[in-house]
User: What shape does this take?
Amino acid sequence: MRKHSRHLKRKRKKKFNIYFICIFVFFISVIGVGFYFYCMDGKDHCSEKIKRAKEHLNKKSEIQEKKTPLPKYNEKLDVSNDGRLVGAMPESANQHGYSSLKVWEILQSNYFPPLEDKKTIFLTFDDGPSGNTEEILAVLSKYKIKATFFVTGSAVQHNPVKLKKIYEEGHALGNHTFSHVFSILYPGGVLNFLNFNNEIEQTEKQIQFVLGESFYTRSIRCPGGSMSWQGMDSLFEDFKNKGLASIDWNAVNGDAEGGLKTASELVNKCKETAKYGINVILMHDKDEKSETVKALPEIIEYYLHQGYQFKILI
Assistant: This one.
């Protein structure tokens, strides 16, 4: 009887152990399956978050591109920017023009080799149009040379006919702000970004009022030179976003240095400084610069005899 009782107890215990193992396995399975789906759901959730983040970045990038589209231009000599004329009349731009964006890069490099294996001169005149403009144009016409005129909006306002003559004779135009007043553009020697941009826009509108809304120039010359002032990085970045070029110079005739100089002194200064493969020469088209007009023929003849080509900035 005792023997039979022990046998029943062992049988019950064995059955209990089997039940316990089955229940344990069942719970482990449930937990495992739940954990698996939890993980998969987490992965899907993370993937969805990553996907949404990427879509957001792509959308933001597209919006940014729409805000600041870069101009479409051929590196060589394209004369259009979304259908607008750039810098000079098409025929002159094609024959004599060179991209101001490329020239900006060259000036920043401080390395001035011959352009396309040819020694090159860019004659540039600031601050006009003025009472001397027509005489300068007559000299350039005599030698069949084209130049770039960085005009101020205020001068254009007073001399619209002369601006038109510059353009119609095949020369290039650049923007030199409206007022050229340092205290407005760079108060305390520091760029006032808002004032500067407002003046660039004012001058562009003034030029377009004379030449038509299709005209556009990407050549900008900062009064006093871009390297003379603090806080210019924001302006340069803005120029790059808009497809504009900041054009300084690497040679001068000296007509803005010190007191009045004679034509002979201006010629000598030009020879001293314009001695590179590429030379962007700073001169001025203002009423008081009559000696610049007198010096111009000798300057042109000297560089023609030296085998230089003359280009304009577009």
User: Anything to note?
Assistant: The mean pLDDT is 84.
